[in-house]
Design brief:
The protein is mainly alpha-helical. The protein has one domain. Helix 1 packs antiparallel against helix 2, helix 2 packs antiparallel against helix 3 and helix 3 runs antiparallel to helix 4. The longest helix is centred in the middle third of the chain and has 28 residues. Belongs to the UPF0382 family. It comes from Glaciecola petra. Keywords: Membrane, Transmembrane, Transmembrane helix. It is found in: Membrane.
Length: 130
Amino acid sequence: MKSSYHWIIVGAVFAFCAVGIGAFAAHGLKNILTEYQLGIVDTAAKYQMYHALAILLSVSLLKSDVRAVNVVNSCFSAGVFLFSGSLYALALSGIKTFAYFTPIGGLLFLIAWLAFILFAYQLSQKEKQS
């Protein structure tokens, strides 16, 4: 079982990389990539950052249920790799096949958010009972 510290590190690494990739694309690749490609990288970096912060938030809010933290953050992490990763690969390579993985990552984000909601609800019910 992964500890909360593991997820704090994962969330922080995702956030760090989102800032670095976004800045590098905006400044270092602006003369190489098209506006369309830069937009793809921007979208990928934004969603990576949103979900990096979601990982950190879930550690804080679901901390009393390690299993919940692990389920939610495993889905968020897989979503980052598939959604943002496929968009980065598409933008940098131009290989459209990578776009097939993007909706799978988006679905994992939705599953993670749904799990977050359900686990938070369960924890709120346990808190009411005690």
